[in-house]
Design a protein that fits this description.
With 593 residues, the chain is mainly alpha-helical. 62% of the residues lie in helices and 5% in strands.
Length: 593
Amino acid sequence: MSTKASQLVSVALSQDRVVEPNPDEESVPPARRNRVLAGRLGAVAAIAAGTALIAAHGMIYGHWMMDDAAITFGYARNVAEGHGPVLQPGLEPVEGFSNPTWLVLLALGSLVGLFDHGTIFGVPDYILFPKALAIACCAGILTLFYATAKVLTKRPRIATLLAGAALAAMPSFVIWIVSGLENPVYALFVTAVAAVLTRAIAADRLLNWRTATLVGVLAAGAALSRPDGAVYAGAFGIVALLFLRRDRIKQTFVAGAISVGAFAVPFGAYLVYRWFTFHRLVPNTAVAKDQPLPVLADLGKPSLLVDYVGWASALLVVGLVAATLARRTPTRAHLAGLLVPLGLAVLAFCVLQADWMGEFRFATPIWTLGALIGGVTLTIVWDVARVRARVLLAVGLVIAGAISFVQFDISARDWRMAAKTPLCVVVERDARTMNGMADIVGRDDLSAGVIDLGGQSMASKLRLIDLAGLGDAKMAEFLGRSDVAGLRDYTFNEAKPSFITFIGTWDLSLGFNIDPRFEQDYHLIYHAPGGWPGIQTSYNLVGYWVRKDVVTDEATLTRLREYTRARVEPILELNKTANRRPCGPVLRPGQTE
């Protein structure tokens, strides 16, 4: 975790802290000192146990790393090496990432020799460092859980352990935490927003300028971790309005303005940087994906999350929250600090278009805050319940937990067998294969039109042209306005990639299969047969083409075809059982092995 992020978490824990008594050692009875020490050790144990459970679950996915995560890895490498925010050295800056906070953390790791340099304990650091950083973020999240639970329940250690165990059991949370993407730091910032708000409400210091400033800065951190994180800029204002009193109207307005300003300064500064560096106000990825306006039907998306965790578990948590809110205690008001950020997380999930990666990648902050709310309200209700109610609650927990566990187990097994687009599959199948093709052709001015960009950006020596648009501003514009004909015109008439590789059905989606110029201008080198057994079609339904003006003699074309078939088919076969493998100690442009 970066120094800045560590400071923010530290401040979040200390803001309006409920301080344990710390009297002079000689005046405190030994029994009380022992209880205080035991409480602190118990808190550390709860945090450590929850973190360890998350890490243990993450280990079942092996060395899997999402290929899209490596797009940010490539940018981090180039930033650390002084090339600037570019996909490859020498290219024009294009914001092919949407997570500058995560990029900065990776670049710092590279600068200190922990990332993109070799192996650590025998594990490639391009795999170990992002995963270790993610687990460190989880430890920070659970620390914030404990700090929040302290002001809500008499059993903060149990609430923290329960929440940590719930997150560890959930494949959707763990998969995206260890994917190499920005989910862990995003969840950390969102949790910090909720923690500061909740503790400030409990201490009656919500309108304190420090609270307003800190929430604004943390919301900016979330917005710079994922674009939809900007929604948390409204968290302070909404909570402040919930507690609006006639005698505090001016104070509420001032505090709200401070929070908005604290958000606007860092976030606005990055927008200025983005404009002058990339000449856009949104990431290039947003242009390529062309986020549509929300429609009324999007309000039904949360039902998908309920199906995922199981209706029994969802109803149980809703019941626990309702029972807590029904009690006339200060805790009812304090929960606003958690429920408002959770509501904003659900809103963001509803607005975002469905994600092709699956396993509800955009739901990470919902799972995070939902687990904390569930752990806290369970301990609150348990403490006030009578024996019969506790028995019923215990039975409900067992039934709901069993149903959820069965569903989670299926999800985890399915993902383990067919995880989406592993980084190392792309490195071996595409980057190193086309490096070998380039060696056969014997030219240094070659380019490649590609779909999977991450592993290519780390290991390819060819100039990359991103046909999926994430790392290419021109392609993004075509895709953003659904102009695939224009994209093909640009590809064939201007970009003219030396090689093209398609996976899955991208050649159909972009219309290359029906464009006569594709066959006129390119030789087919190799195309895998459809339905390669035992693995997702999108992994192994791969094809490679070379421009006819790059290879003008039949002997070289024959060598390319023989080399590609001999190299690629064993990789495709290996993908059936080893899609979680690493791909060597380092990733460097030009590698063929």
